[in-house]
Amino acid sequence: MQVDRVLYNGKIYTPRGFVEAGIAIEKGRIFKIAKKPSLPKASSKMNLNGLIVLPGLVDSHVHLRDQERAYREDLFTGTAAAAAGGFSLVIDMPNNKPVTMDVQSLRERMKLAEKKVLVNVAFYSAFPENTKEIRNIVSEGAIAFKLFLLEKVGGLNIDDDTVVLQAINEVKKANVPVAVHAEDKDICENEMKRKQENRTDFEAYLEAHSSNSEVKAVQRIIGVAEKSEAHVHFCHISSAKSLSLIKKAKAVGVNITCEVTPHHLLLTSKDLKRHENLAITLPPVRTREDMNALWKALKQDLIDTLGSDHAPHALKEKKLKSIWKVKPGIAGLETTLPLMLTQVNKGRLTITELVQLASKNPAEIFHLKDRGTLLKGYCADLVVIDIKREHKIDSSKFHTKAKFSPFDGWKVKGMPVKTFVNGRLVMEEGEIVAKPGTGEIIR
Ligand code: DOR
Ligand code: ZN
Ligand code: ZN
């Protein structure tokens, strides 16, 4: 038999650990993982020169924009950034213009994506006003819902716990998870109003988006999750106090998981000034104690996923004079893997932890069938990494439209050098080598 492609002479990360072997790919799936003599013939062969192969990264937290926000990012540039960063699947957040929040808006976005995307893309929906619509949105192909608690995005009255519980119950029936941005709207709005008039310093911004506001939102939603038994996934947890609440709730069996971002693991509020707004994101990066607590939780297996929270903006939106007007967000797709591989090289993170957080767990949590693991029969989504490659982050070379980053100039060790999506080579040595539309819409 002859298969489509054979990659040989690699170090393949399988659930049983590394094997020095090759991968045979047929019709977009892994046909066999074996040593060279046992691999079938193939129309295309590639020598991996001993490099490591990991499951392609799955980022369950990206804002791909497009439509009326295409000046910030579009589905092509965003997925090019994903491919360049070693991601083979990303899940798009719904706070778009128009907001993804019903069958119509989801269908439009999927249709647009079909022709443009380079990696696989799945979609979140925001909550519609009428929770009975949730079912139809899931039938249309949304794989999760996003609950944004900082302000109203979509149709749901987020101030009313009964309404929120009812919505989450519907999501539970549809058997999809709910991802939550946990910052309390009232606390943040009130604090902002109090400060806005006479303060524009970073400190004021941090006070308005305090860890207490995160804690209040986390506490509130844990309560709802307990009642509904729906799967709640907390996005970008940033504070030590929230972590202890999550730890307690997990211990008593509440159905929750949580995410951490590279910026919350690697930056603190002390870095804000130096980066002139580029490190402004929500929730904000916090104290060293908070950062250390995130690492500790990660090592204790309390963190489930690593998400980039890729949130591109135009440079002028980041450079606005008033801190209250600056758009929060960091474009993270092209820095996440190099930054994390650097931590692997430093001995702070293991490859096993990285694969769990960035491939295996997100695939499981979001029910992405046959993804996130390298095994026979699974989709051939792979990233080839050079763990020894040293590089200096240069945001001017990014594929995202947001060609700036608080990580610009950082020295990293460990780089993705090839990304395969459904068995197709999409990125090689930082270049995009596939056509738009190569990625699949995952429903
Ligand atoms: O920093 C952020 N940027 N936090 C959010 O919750 C939204 C996001 C965005 O869409 O820009
Ligand atoms: Zn968020
Ligand atoms: Zn986000």
Features:
single chain; 443 residues; alpha/beta; Urease, subunit C, domain 1; TIM Barrel; 2 domains; nine-stranded mixed sheet; eight-stranded parallel sheet; 24% strand; globular; binds (4S)-2,6-dioxohexahydropyrimidine-4-carboxylic acid; binds zinc ion
Describe this structure in words.
This protein has helices spanning 75-84, 103-116, 133-140, 161-173, 185-196, 202-208, 211-228, 240-251, 262-266, 288-299, 315-318, 336-345, 351-365; strands at 2-14, 17-26, 29-34, 41-47, 52-55, 57-62, 87-92, 120-126, 144-148, 178-181, 232-234, 256-260, 305-306, 382-392, 411-421, 424-428, 431-432. By secondary structure, it is of the alpha/beta class. The strands form 2 sheets. Strands 1, 2, 3, 4, 5, 14, 15, 16 and 17 form a 9-stranded mixed sheet that branches. Strands 6-7-8-9-10-11-12-13 form an 8-stranded parallel sheet. Strand 8 (120-126), helix 3 (133-140) and strand 9 (144-148) form a beta-alpha-beta unit. The radius of gyration is 21 Å and the shape is globular. (4S)-2,6-dioxohexahydropyrimidine-4-carboxylic acid is lined by residues 63, 95, 181, 281-282, 311, 328-329.
Largest sheet, in brief, is:
9 strands, mixed
**Within the CATH hierarchy, at the fold level, what is the topology of the largest domain?**
TIM Barrel
The rounded distance between the terminal residues' Cα atoms is 32 Å
Instruction: Give the overall shape.
Output: globular
Write the CATH architecture name of the largest domain: Alpha-Beta Barrel
Structural class call reads: alpha/beta
**Order of secondary-structure elements:** EEEEEEHEHEHEHEHHHEHEHHEHHHEEEE
In helices, the fraction of residues equals: 25-40%
Strand content: 15-25%
Count up the domains. Answer: 2
Number of helices: 13
Query: In angstroms, what is the radius of gyration?
Result: 21 Å
Q: Which ligands appear in the coordinates? A: (4S)-2,6-dioxohexahydropyrimidine-4-carboxylic acid, zinc ion
CATH homology superfamily name of the largest domain: Metal-dependent hydrolases
